[in-house]
Automatic annotation (TrEMBL), chain B:
<dbReference type="InterPro" id="IPR003439">
    <property type="entry name" value="ABC_transporter-like_ATP-bd"/>
</dbReference>
<dbReference type="InterPro" id="IPR003593">
    <property type="entry name" value="AAA+_ATPase"/>
</dbReference>
<dbReference type="InterPro" id="IPR050166">
    <property type="entry name" value="ABC_transporter_ATP-bind"/>
</dbReference>
<keyword id="KW-0813">Transport</keyword>
<dbReference type="GO" id="GO:0005524">
    <property type="term" value="F:ATP binding"/>
</dbReference>
<keyword id="KW-0547">Nucleotide-binding</keyword>
<protein>
    <recommendedName>
        <fullName>Carnitine transport ATP-binding protein OpuCA</fullName>
        <ecNumber>7.6.2.9</ecNumber>
    </recommendedName>
</protein>
<dbReference type="GO" id="GO:0015418">
    <property type="term" value="F:ABC-type quaternary ammonium compound transporting activity"/>
</dbReference>
<dbReference type="Pfam" id="PF00005">
    <property type="entry name" value="ABC_tran"/>
</dbReference>
<comment type="subunit">
    <text>The complex is composed of two ATP-binding proteins (OpuCA), two transmembrane proteins (OpuCB and OpuCD) and a solute-binding protein (OpuCC).</text>
</comment>
<dbReference type="InterPro" id="IPR027417">
    <property type="entry name" value="P-loop_NTPase"/>
</dbReference>
<dbReference type="InterPro" id="IPR017871">
    <property type="entry name" value="ABC_transporter-like_CS"/>
</dbReference>
<feature type="domain" description="ABC transporter">
    <location>
        <begin position="3"/>
        <end position="237"/>
    </location>
</feature>
<keyword id="KW-0067">ATP-binding</keyword>
<dbReference type="GO" id="GO:0016887">
    <property type="term" value="F:ATP hydrolysis activity"/>
</dbReference>
Length: 251, 280
């Protein structure tokens, strides 16, 4: 309902002729017969494969960067929780690192890796690593000692204890970490692709800007919004809910 | 002697330079197959003793012996049942109960078989696929007991396992635990702050004084089993334990409320004096 109202208002403004069509293209109903609409560009772009291909490029970069961040975040988180001196050094530093927007790393990334895939992966990974670290270390630190003690008296120790008790007991924290880290990675990759790197949705956005094709820009914004929502709802919210159900936590 | 504590002292570091003395020269033995309860005011170090016997913590001085050998760490010959059970919430009942067995490198089939046997012993064979949060408090404690029993430990350590349960459930579990103890002949060290519970279950009750905790007195319960709370021996002991405890409680209350607090003895006596926990 809310969406329909927004669309209606948009259409009215667009048709009122306050702005030129290229700046404020109509969403569904063309202003002149056969003229551009965002819907047409979106459908056309998806059909021709242009938007699909770009989405594929973006998602695969995102996935790789995100996975790197998750592995690093879990490792750092574990070390921080396990060793006091790592907590005093890295643990302290991570809070500062976390407050740096990942795009700030971009100049460095370009110098280090050149303008391209690696630089993008770098800022995606670095954008998500620190939140993942903070969340996972909180998860590991807050494992109730009763679980650890119970497991130890039942014969568990070392890596068995880590795998069967400490990791699973941290799962609720880790999942919320994944969710936030994903959101950070998603923002980082858009910023990165917009600033440079061939292919990807961010690059298409930049293309749309330079050719003054706001219909393309809006189409891509819609795609970005949709993907973000779908992944959050279908992947992370579901994970959170299923863990909450299994553990009997309140949702 | 199954378990021996020899001049065990324990203190914790409390901030800079300060130490908190928790246990003061604890010295007692538990024989094979004996059911011993530890009772004492809150904070006197009961759980600390249990952790030392379990090997989850080490004494500051003195030693804990198990079958004549010094305890240096946890071992499956001494399994603990905690107050809140300590079941793993991400595992089903059967996964919880087989956890220790599989760690012993037992085959899946054999572990499953043993776990079912344990669950039947506590009458929970129909709840194997449930998660802990789907069970009542009493059922959770029974699963925890089954999880400990299937390990076939020499000594069962129980830290206020029934404290969070209602009176009815507790009475049922007392019966079950007595039956299990008689069937298996396990040595049990049981912590409680409920005098009646201690007298119903134990061969011997050790009464501890306030922090730093020491064993203040020892009572041997010589009533027939299954115990009848109306048994004259039990009634008599209950009164004697209560008198001793009142003294210790007064110390605790003075510490908590300041010196101007005077325990009204008559009021405490008139109330349900089986459970000193409610006065603390
Ligand atoms: N790991 C620890 N570090 C510091 N102090 C501790 C630690 N464990 C226990 N203590 C202190 O030791 C004292 C005894 O604790 P303990 O848990 O053994 O008491 P308790 O007799 O079991 O009491 P309750 O009946 O309330 O369970 C308490 O004052 C507690 O604060
Ligand atoms: Mg305790």
């Amino acid at each position: 309902m809310f969406v329909i109202v927004i669309i209606a208002i948009w259409e009215v403004i667009s048709k009122a002729g306050i702005f030129p069509t290229f700046m404020f293209p109509p969403l569904i109903i063309p202003s002149v017969p056969g003229g551009v609409t965002v819907l047409k560009t979106l459908v056309g772009g998806v059909m021709s494969g242009q938007i699909l291909a770009a989405t594929g490029v973006t998602l695969s970069r995102l996935l790789i960067g995100f996975l790197i961040a998750v592995v690093l975040g879990l490792t750092f988180g574990f070390l921080i929780a396990r060793f006091k001196w790592v907590d005093d050094t890295l643990g302290y530093f991570v809070t500062a690192l976390q407050s740096i927007p990942s795009i700030v790393w971009f100049p460095l990334a370009i110098v280090w890796f050149g303008l391209g895939n690696t630089a993008i992966l770098f800022i995606v990974a670095i954008g998500a690593t620190w939140t993942m670290t903070v969340n996972s270390s909180a998860g590991f630190k807050n494992v109730p000692s009763i679980y650890i003690n119970a497991a130890r008296t039942l014969g568990s120790s070392g890596s068995h204890l880590l795998r069967t008790v400490i990791l699973p007991a941290s799962v609720p924290h880790i999942i919320s970490g994944l969710r936030v880290a994903w959101a950070f990675a998603w923002r980082a990759i858009m910023a990165g692709e917009l600033l440079g790197a061939a292919g990807g949705l961010g690059y298409l956005l930049d293309l749309g800007r330079s050719t003054q094709a706001m219909d393309l820009v809006l189409s891509i914004m819609i795609v970005i919004g949709l993907i973000g929502t779908i992944i959050d709802n279908q992947v992370f919210l579901r994970m959170e809910r299923s863990v909450a159900r299994k553990w009997g936590l309140r949702t | 002697m199954k378990v021996s504590l020899k001049e065990v002292n324990k203190s914790f570091q409390k901030g800079k330079g300060e130490t908190l003395e928790v246990l003061d020269d604890i010295d007692f033995n538990i024989s094979e197959g004996e059911f011993v309860s530890l009772i004492g005011p809150s904070g006197c170090g009961k759980s600390t003793i249990l952790k030392l016997v379990a090997g989850l913590d080490a004494p500051t001085s003195g030693e804990v012996l198990m079958n004549g050998r010094t305890v240096t760490g946890p071992g499956t010959d001494r399994v603990v049942v905690f107050q809140e059970g300590g079941l793993f919430p991400w595992m089903t009942v059967i996964e919880n109960v087989t956890y220790g067995l599989l760690r012993k490198k037992m085959s899946k089939e054999e572990a499953h078989e043993k776990a079912m046997e344990g669950l039947r012993m506590v009458h929970l064979a129909n709840f194997t696929g449930s998660y802990p949060h789907e069970l009542s408090g009493g059922m959770k404690q029974r699963v925890a007991i089954a999880r400990a029993l299937v390990m076939d430990p020499d000594v069962l350590l129980m830290d206020e396992p029934f404290a969070a349960l209602d009176e009815q459930t507790r009475l049922v579990l007392h019966k079950e635990l007595q039956r299990i103890w008689q069937d298996t002949g396990k040595t049990i060290l049981f912590i409680t702050h409920n005098i009646r519970e201690a007298l119903t279950l134990s061969d011997r009750v050790l009464l501890m004084s306030t922090r730093p905790g020491a064993v203040k007195r020892e009572f041997t319960v010589q009533a027939a089993r299954p115990r009848d709370p109306a048994d004259s021996n039990v009634v008599d002991l209950e009164r004697r334990v209560m008198e001793e405890l009142e003294e210790e409680m007064e110390k605790v209350l003075k510490e908590e409320f300041g010196d101007d607090y005077h325990l009204e003895k008559s009021r405490v006596r008139d109330s349900d004096h089986s459970d000193m926990g409610s006065h603390i």
